[in-house]
Amino acid sequence: MKLICDFWVLNIVDAIGGREVRFGEIEKSIPISPATLTNRLKKLEDQGVVVRHIETLDKQSVTYALTKKGRDLLPIILAIKQFSEIHSI
What is the per-residue pLDDT for 39? Predict the structure, then answer.
C-alpha cells in the first residue's frame, strides 16, 4: 500500500504499460513536472517496479519498462479505472 498510495506511481506505471518508453513519452502522457517524474522513476526503480535501459549505439538512449512486479500492478490499475467508470468518479 505504501508504494501505490503515491498518486503518481499508478499514473506512471499505467503510462509505461507493457512496453519500453522514453522519459518524454511518459511526461507527455501525464501532467507531471520533470523533477517529480525523475524522482518517482528513481523510486520505482529502487523498489523493483521499473527497470531503466541505457543504449549507446549512436547516441545515448534511455528507456523505461515495467518489471514483473510492475506488470502485476496493471490489473489493479484497470480495476480502479473500471470502478471509476461504473461509479462515475
Answer: 96
